[in-house]
Amino acid sequence: MRRRFILLLFATACASTAGPSSQIGPFVDGLLRRIPELPALGIAVVRDGRTVYLHDAGTAYYVGSTTKAYTGLACAILAAQGRLDLDAPVSKYLPEVTLPHAPSLRVFLTHTSGLENSGVTFRTAYTGEYTSARLLAMLNDSKPLRPGFHYDNLGYIVASLVIERVTGEPWQRALRDLVFAPLGMRHTTASMSEAERWAMQKPYTIGRGGQVEPLALRKNDRTMHAAGGIVTTPSDLAIWLNANVLQKGGGIPRAAFLEAQKMQTATEIERGDFKGRGYGFGWYQGEFKGQSALFHAGGYPGWQSAFLLLPDRHAGIGIMTNLSGPTLSLILASTSFIADVLEGRASSADQRVAALEEMMTKGRNGMRAELAKRAQRPSMLRHPRAAYTGRYQNAAIGTLVIDEANDNLVATLADLRAVLEPFTEEEAARVELIPGSGEVLRFTFAGEAAKANAVAWNGELFARVP
User: Fold this and answer.
1) Hey, which residues does 427 pair with through a beta bridge?
2) Potential cystine with 257: which of 2, 143, 247, 337 (Cβ 3.0-4.6 Å)?
3) Tell me, what DSSP letter sits at residue 451?
4) What pLDDT, in 10s, does the model give residues 80-105?
5) What is the rounded distance in angstroms from the CA atom of residue 49 to the CA atom of residue 245?
6) Buried residues in 135-166 as b, exposed as e (16+ CB within 10 A)
C-alpha cells in the first residue's frame, strides 16, 4: 500500500510538471513551422520556483530593454547595502554633472527626470563613439521635458555611471558581481564579446523586398549599455524569473527586490492583455488578464523580448526572438497563450497558432503593399546627386556622410548605413539608418548654393563641414 501511495504521488508530480509542456511544446513547434518570418524562439516558463518549460535552452539571445530590470535591481541592491542613496542628487556621485537641481537616481530609474539627451542615448546604443567623461559632459546639455513619465534609455545610462563610481568597477562587471553570479546565471552577460563565444542566435530583419535576411548591424561591447545591453539564455532567464517571482535568491536582500518591483510612479500603458498603471525599476506594474502583474518588453534591430511576472501565481514567462519589428505582437500573444496554459484555460494550440499565422500573414501582405507603394514614389530631391554628398556634423550625434554608390545616394553614420529612397516632401528622402525604423532626411539650401548646407534627421540638425 505504501509503495502504491508513493507511486501515486510521483505520478501526480510528473503530471503537474509535464502538463504545461505538453501544451506549450506543440504550440511553439507550430509557430516555428508555420510562420516563416520567425527564425528562432528562446522561451522560459516558471511556476512555484520550478522551471516548467524551456525552448532553445542553452542558446543566447540579446534582450534589449528588458535589461533595465537587471540594472534597476543592481541599484536597489547597492541601496539595500547602504552604498547608494537613491534619493540623493546624482551629482553626489557624479560631481561633473552641474545641472541645476540635479535629479536623483530614483527619478532617473523611473523615467521622471524631466530630461532628454538624444546624443547620450544614441551614441551608447548605436555608434559607440563616447567615453565616460564625454557622456558626463554631454549630460549637462540635456534638454528639459514637461513633467511626468517619459520612457527612454537616459536614466539607465546615468545609473550605469553612478554604479561605476560607487563600486569602482565597470557597470558590466558590477552587474555580474551583484546579480548574475549570486543567482548562478552563468550564461548572462553585458559583454557582447563574451556572449559571442557561446552558442548564440544571429539577428535577422525584414529586407527591402519583404524577405527575412541576416542583419548587418550588430551589437558590440561599445553599444551594450545599461538600458539595453544584456545577453542571456532561456535557462538563465528561468533563474531570473524565479528569483523575481519569489523575491529571493543568491543572498540578494529581499528589500532590493521589493524596491525594484514596487510602483515608483504612476503611468498608463496598454498592449493587448498587458495593462500597466505604474512603473518600478525596469518593470511596469499593472494587470494581465485581471491578475496582478509586472512586465516589460525589449527590442533592437534584429531582436525582441518580453518578460512577464505573475506574483500571485508564483509564475513567470519570458520569450526572446532574433527578429525585430512584426514579432512583438506575436511574442505578446504567445505569452497570453502560455499564461492560459498555466491557468488551465488554454484553447487548442493549433487554433492559436492558426490565429497568429493569420495575423502575421496580414502583416506580411501589408508590408509588401507598403513596399510596392513606396517603390512608385518619384524622387523629391531636385538637385543633382552631387549637391547632397558630403559630410554633415552634429555635436551631439556625430558625423553623417552622404555618398554616391551604385547609382544611389547612401547615408552613413558610424556603422549605420542606408540607401536614400524617395519620400513625399520636397528635398527630403526616406532612410532606414536604424533598420526597420523609417526616418526622413530633410536637406536645406542657402539661397542659390549648389550644395546643401544642412540636413535634419530625427529632430537633429547636421551642418555641412569641409
Assistant:
1) none
2) 247
3) S
4) 999 999 999 999 999 999 998 899 99
5) 8
6) bbebbeebeeeeeebbebbbbbbbbbbbbbeb
Q: Say yes or no to pLDDT of 11 above 70.
A: no
- Looking at residue 18, its pLDDT comes to 53
pLDDT of residue 15 exceeding 80: no
Q: Which SS3 state, helix, strand or coil, does residue 416 take?
A: strand
CA neighbours closer than 13 Å in the CB half-sphere of residue 39 = 21
Cell of 130: 563616447
- Cβ neighbours for 339, distance < 8 A, ≥ 6 positions apart: 273, 288, 289, 308, 310, 315, 317
User: Nearest-CA neighbor of 255 among 103, 78, 95, 123?
Assistant: 78
Place of cell 525594484: 260
Distance between CA atoms of residues 292 and 310, nearest Å: 6
Read off the C-alpha cell for 247: 523575491
Check if the beta carbon of residue 190 is closer than 8 Å to that of residue 172. Answer: yes
Count of residues making up the chain? 466
Q: Copy the grid coordinates of residue 346.
A: 488554454
Kindly provide the residue ranges of all beta strands, DSSP E only, lying in 192-342, ordered along the sequence. 204-206, 212-214, 231-232, 265-271, 274-279, 284-288, 291-300, 303-310, 315-321
Helical H segments across 116-233, by residue range: 118-122, 132-139, 154-167, 171-175, 181-183, 192-195
> Quick check: 210 pLDDT over 80?
no
Residue type (1 letter), 210: G
Predicted local confidence at residue 207, as pLDDT: 75
Name the band, by pLDDT with cuts 50, 70 and 90, for residue 74: very high
Q: How many Å apart are CA 206 and CA 212, to the nearest integer?
A: 5
Count the Cβ atoms, other than its own, within 10 Å of residue 119: 22
Asked if 38 and 323 touch (Cβ cutoff 8 Å), the reply is: yes
Give the long-range contacts of residues 417-425, CB within 8 A, separation 24 or more.
417/216, 420/381, 420/388, 421/374, 421/377, 422/374, 422/377, 422/378, 422/379, 422/380, 423/377, 423/380, 424/377, 424/380, 425/380
Determine whether 330 is exposed, middle or buried from the number of CB atoms within 10 Å of its CB (0-12, 13-18, 19+): buried
> What is the distance between the alpha carbons of residues 32 and 245, in angstroms, rounded to a whole number?
28
